[in-house]
Write a structure and sequence with these properties.
The structure holds 2 protein chains of 2 kinds. By secondary structure, chain A is mainly α. Chain A has helices spanning about 15-20, 30-40, 50-60, 90-110; strands spanning about 25-30, 65, 85. In chain A, helix 1 crosses helix 2. The relative contact order of chain A is 0.18. Chain B is about 55% helix and about 15% strand. Chain B is built from 26 helices and 23 strands. By secondary structure, chain B is of the alpha+beta class. In chain B, strands 4-5-10-7-9-8 form a 6-stranded mixed beta barrel. The chains are: A mainly alpha, B alpha+beta. The interface of A and B includes residues 44 and 54 of A.
Amino acid sequence: MPSDPRTHLPLTPIVLHILLVLAEGERHGYAIAQEIESATNGQVRAGPGTMYGSIQRMLTAALIEEMPAGRRGGTDDDGRRRYYRISSLGERVLALELQRLVDVVRIARDKQLLREPRPV
Amino acid sequence: MRLFDALFAAVLLIFPRTFRSRFGGEMRDFARRRIDDARSLGALAALGEAIRLLADTLAALPAAWLSLRAERPRGIASPPSPYPRDHMDTLRQDLRFALRALARRPGFTIVAALTLALGIGANTAIFSVVNAVLIRALPYPDPDRLVLVWGTQGSQVGEGVVYADYLDWRARSRTFTDMGVFRPQSVNITGGDAPDRLVGSFVTASLFRTAGTTMAAGRAFTDAETDLPTKAPVAVLQYEAWQSRFGADPAVIGKTFTINGTAFTVVGITSPNTPMPLFGAPDVYLPIPYYPNARGFDRGERGVMVLGRLAASATIASAQRDLDAIGRQLADEYPATNAGTGAAVESLRDRTVAGTRASLLIVAAAVALVLLIACANVANLQLARGASRMRELSVRAALGAGRGRIAQQLMTESVVLSLIGGVLGLAIAFALSRALVALVGAQLPVAPTDVRLDGTVLLFALAVSVATGLLFGLAPAWQATRRDLADMLRSRTPAGTSARTRNVLVVMQLALSLALLASAGLLTRSLIALQHVDAGFDGDHLLTAQFRLPATVYDSPEKIWAMYDRTVTELRAIPGVTDAALVRASPLSGNGDPVPVTVEDRPTAKAGDAPRMVLNVVTPGYFATMRIPLLAGRDVDANDRLGGPGVVVVNKAFADAMWPGASPIGKRIQAGSDEWLTIVGVVGNSKHFALNETQALQGYIPHAQRPQIFTSIVVRTTGDPLTYAKVVREAVWRVDRNQPVWRFRSMQQDLDTAVAAQKAIMWLTVSFAVVALLVASVGIYGVLSYTMLQRTREVGIRIALGAHPRSVTRMVIAEGARLVAFAVAAGLAASAGAARVLSSQLFGVRPNDAVTFAVVTVVLAAVAILACYLPARRASRVDPMVALRAD
């Protein structure tokens, strides 16, 4: 299993969003989908197939982990659901991806391709 | 909704087991929460969300399967290709491609969409009826807890209940939360400008509680008002009757009306559309003590019906045991009346839908077959198209699309096509369901407005569309992934899609069509046989009507008979009337009861095993009026008076059964009572309850000797019988100004109603069979056309070598005939199976009737061979120069 985080880049949008949510703490599947939807203002609306298909692939790639039963916390406590959290590999991959995106935006700005909203 | 849950669970079954066991529960939870959130925005939003969830889940399917085969978990990076990299994008792109591909071939798309629309629309329409009748039939609160309790006497089940027994059951049982009594009967309402008749129901206060009836105004009965000792003359109106018969008078509560000669005060109005068991809602509810049961409410006198609500922990079996135990106690306490009696508990749902369930399921199966045939057609169309798409798909493969991806895309196309067909099908479904209600609405135990395209039906349409799309999408998708597509670009051989698959599909279509045709044929012969049944009487120019005398006014047999005698005289005096009589139960009216009969000197072993006879009560001249032949002895006449020696006229079936070869005149029988009746005449057999009944034993006693308050009028007229309704009513009013007469029907109407259900099923099945045959013919035409197109070179060579065009035609037709032969073999087997399923609906024709099978086989073969003719002619016209030059 490759532990070099760079082999995982670039991330697909849904994987990126899931990592962004889990970077804040552990969540269960539905909560992840809800947060993504509100954070992107409804642009990214993942269904159960997308969600759990991605979760399965991220588990296989060790970017996220399933929480062992019994260790729950926070206000979303629900004994029935499975909670997921980001792994250390996942944190590194996320950091690298965000840096990659920042680099791309910088290139675009240098070329004056990016039209940014004017500050009020 | 439960239906969505089931659908989602079914979709999850297509996923790999490891994936399903790991994530299945969470995914269902997820979907459920999404639907619940969407539901707060309305039903349409929920439906849209349901579609999205299903689409998203299905889109994740290929990846879930393909990920099973990953040997090493690779990095989660996506390949550096222009293709989208997550499911939602994939789905959106697939949708765009699908719509574009369908738009590029409008001919194919329109034909396929219309074929599917027909199949899906028909299925949805039938489902809306099934939904209303079988699934939603009981609009009571918690309807599966409701049961009917019948009385049993020895081995006879389905009897009315003894009121006193009901009181004991209610008091002593532990498996019911409540029980109530109901007894529908027509009641006379007088005091207005004309006497009228209402449909009444005599009930206990507990009936409203048991059925969960709510009131729109006023109140229901109190227990005291419906108990025998403390009865009160109060009435509750049914909402719809309040609107139509009482003018929606807002001040009707507290008003008094004269019903059956007694003044009743209205205390309440039920909510709209209140359901009542078995007979539908009456116009007015009255307390049971006012039921004009001539024999009162003593022990041993049957006459009421009971509705019960099971306790939460009870089942029908445990309730049955409970009542059996109580029955045994009662038999000990009252051996004279209750020996050998008991109770039978039946689920209300079973009783309500029983009559229609078989017919509905037959029709549903037939229409499902039509959809299968339509699917096969579209699959064939796609396979034929598949060859020309190979090039396009090969290019995609070369550009990096994996096999799974291409298969996914083809499936998406199929499902999109199917959904388009489904949406078009909704219009067809709406029209068809309206037509069905118009055609058979009277036979269904639900109101016409209950048959509608509601949420459940729409979800069914969606599910059928998706399933159909997946079904006919399988063939081309599987075909596309079987070959190495990139190879195909390099070689120049024309892509030969397997002719065998298409041939198999066509054979299947034709075989199913044959099964449908055979079913239609058998049902048609049944109907014809039914319509030719000799009813035993002449139904032409015959008018029937009914009336019931108020027991309070006509409180002695002499008064009743005097009224009847004068009525017959008045009826006979009407100009245009050639004959008239009174009879307790006219044929095919649904009235009449079988009673046990005992023959003198031939005692029967047990009370419950005596033969049963349909006992009718007639005035002199009834047989002449009905044109039932008098075969021996005499009719009842004026000498058979009240208090005189009891006489009876029996039918031929009874005479032959009891005294074969000898005359029954002078012999004595007991029928339904202890009185000995002397047989004075024998008449011809006639049908009483239904045209397809086995001939019943019938007996007729004079009205003069048994003047009951209910009777029916039969009048033979010279003109159209229904135009005589007014003068018949006036004739009765000349005898009693306050007597309402109702249910004016011509006997022809009753005869038509008797076959209406069979006729409807027959027409439906015939329509489906014709549609199926047409679709299958188009199918075989398409397949042969395409096969011949592929073999253009071969045909060109043959012709160039001197083959006569006619031999080419023969070759093509032989090819078609081969398919038809296989189809007939398979189809006959399917037909035999279908016939066995149908056997309960058949009349006058055996399920394996050779003539019917032979005829439909010939029809199918003829139509199919005809469909082969066009491609055959085209093939024979091939210009060898053109054919050989083409590459």
